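Hypothesis: this fold can be encoded by more than one sequence.
Test: take the structure tokens below, design a sequence, compare later.
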């Protein structure tokens, strides 16, 4: 079983500490939401945890192997990463964009082996993209493009997924659709760590919530234990009422 384990991780930029002493784990079967205000250090934590950004202290391992020492292809076979910025350099067909997810196995669009092509087909089906297979990616709506990026990540068929704000700028319907897709991936045996800003959405889907503020993880646990009005005041500086997975923000604290 592939596991991502981070211990006492610290990231600095010059004299500024972006992440300090952070630790968490991710295993298949979990859908974990990483929460915190802008500038809390969430993206730096994810990138350093995956070995994509230099860490100044601590450890980050995948199956016991130092993430920073893994080759890009080996890392991609163990964990699919969906970054916050997902530009498309040219107007590829949707299926070719999804096929880029097979990079971890040395594949290239237009030159897919049968196993690669089958993996792309499965990812397309999972994300309901069959009807868009030959559409140019630059003609898609925001919701459609979000599904394409998810399918690209799923095409690697890695046991873990790390997604940085996969529902950013989407309307509520498409936010639910993307989270349903990720939840389905977890139900099939994957493990997902997802950065979200919608607290109610996180509580609805996640089995665990990791809360960050000022570069530090301040809480990690189930929504029933960590989602409170006091926590929202501490993390976001807002007054809120919490009813199960529903959060009503009333204003600044």
């Amino acid at each position: 079983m592939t596991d991502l384990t981070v211990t006492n991780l610290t990231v600095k930029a010059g004299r500024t500490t972006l992440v300090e002493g952070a630790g968490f784990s991710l295993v298949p079967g979990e859908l974990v939401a990483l929460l915190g205000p802008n500038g809390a250090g969430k993206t730096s934590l994810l990138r350093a945890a995956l070995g994509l950004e230099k860490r100044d202290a601590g450890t980050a391992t995948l199956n016991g192997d130092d993430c920073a020492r893994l080759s890009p292809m080996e890392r991609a076979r163990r964990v699919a990463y969906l970054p916050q910025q997902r530009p498309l350099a040219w107007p590829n067909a949707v299926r070719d964009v999804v096929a880029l997810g097979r990079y971890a196995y040395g594949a290239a669009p237009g030159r897919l082996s049968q196993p690669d092509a089958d993996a792309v087909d499965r990812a397309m089906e999972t994300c309901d993209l069959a009807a868009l297979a030959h559409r140019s990616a630059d003609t898609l709506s925001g919701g459609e493009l979000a599904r394409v990026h998810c399918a690209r990540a799923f095409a690697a068929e890695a046991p873990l997924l790390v997604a940085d704000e996969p529902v950013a700028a989407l309307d509520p319907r498409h936010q639910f659709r993307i989270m349903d897709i990720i939840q389905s991936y977890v139900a099939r045996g994957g493990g997902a760590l997802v950065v979200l800003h919608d607290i109610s959405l996180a509580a609805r889907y996640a089995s665990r919530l990791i809360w960050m503020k000022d570069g530090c993880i301040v809480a990690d646990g189930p929504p029933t234990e960590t989602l409170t009005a006091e926590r929202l005041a501490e993390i976001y500086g807002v007054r809120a009422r919490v009813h199960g997975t529903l959060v009503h923000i009333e204003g600044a604290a």
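The chain is about 30% helix and 30% strand. The radius of gyration is 18 Å.
Hypothesis status: open.
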